[in-house]
Design a protein that fits this description.
By secondary structure, this protein is of the alpha/beta class. The chain has a single domain (28-44, 57-202), classed as Aminopeptidase, CATH 3.40.630.40. It contains 7 helices and 8 strands. The protein has helices at residues 2-23, 49-63, 83-93, 125-142, 156-160, 176-182, 185-202, and strands at residues 27-33, 43-44, 47-48, 69-73, 97-104, 114-118, 147-152, 165-172. Strands 4-1-5-8-6-7 form a 6-stranded mixed sheet, with helices on both faces. A hairpin with a 2-residue loop joins strand 2 (43-44) and strand 3. Helix 4 crosses helix 7 (185-202). It starts with a helix and ends with a helix. The chain binds zinc ion (ZN).
């Protein structure tokens, strides 16, 4: 009789535990700040892509207060990490979404706006494309930058990540208007907040 009671207590405990974990199921996002260390990425005068995307990542970490959204970062300092290593980290985390952050450059200083890249070699290509469309629409509504749409890209992290994956090029460092927004503290905060708003709309 005693052992039966024990079994019942354990069963109830397990049941309530599984209920709690279902209730608090995290939505997991990996933010991949592009480049780092010796790899500067795009640059214009003293502005470096690796620093801009790092600053935006840090703001995302600081602003996120949603306990059901768990955010991991492939890098939190100015270090060079091989793409293969990044993918290994991402696939170990098994996120709901990978968002790789970049800033663009072009010889034509008039070229401006943001664009999202997805890869048809990604195992979750269709989901990636669906999410990327939501991302660019939200950015079109919430930021002053121009929407250049969703494009297909062959980036290594997009192809190899075993989860929906988007590379997001947030404006052109070579365009004056984009640069003043992306390099500005207020602009970076708005970008970080918009990314979190996007995550909030897709997490359910
Ligand atoms: Zn880049």
């Amino acid at each position: 009789m005693k052992s039966l009671l024990k079994i019942i207590i354990i069963a109830v405990a397990l049941l309530s535990l599984s209920f709690v974990s279902n209730e608090n199921k995290d939505f997991v996002v990996v933010i991949d700040a592009g480049h780092g260390g010796k790899d500067f990425g795009a640059k214009h005068t003293t502005f470096l892509e690796k620093e801009l995307v790092s600053a935006i990542s840090q703001k995302i970490a600081k602003i996120n207060t949603d306990k059901n959204v768990k955010i991991y970062f492939t890098r939190t300092s100015d270090e060079f990490i091989e793409l293969q290593k990044r993918v290994e980290m991402i696939n170990e985390i098994k996120p709901n979404l990978l968002l790789s952050l970049h800033v663009n450059q072009n010889k034509n200083t008039e070229t401006n706006g943001f664009e999202a890249y997805v890869s048809d070699k990604n195992s979750n290509f269709e989901k990636s494309e669906e999410l990327a469309k939501k991302l660019v629409t939200l950015f079109e509504n919430q930021t002053p930058l121009k929407n250049r749409g969703v494009k297909k890209g062959m980036l290594y992290v997009l192809k190899k990540t075993e989860a929906p994956a988007i590379a997001f090029e947030i404006g052109f460092i070579t365009n004056e208007k984009d640069r003043s927004y992306v390099c500005n503290e207020q602009g970076q905060t708005q970008i970080a907040q918009s990314i979190l708003d996007f995550v909030n709309t897709i997490k359910n």
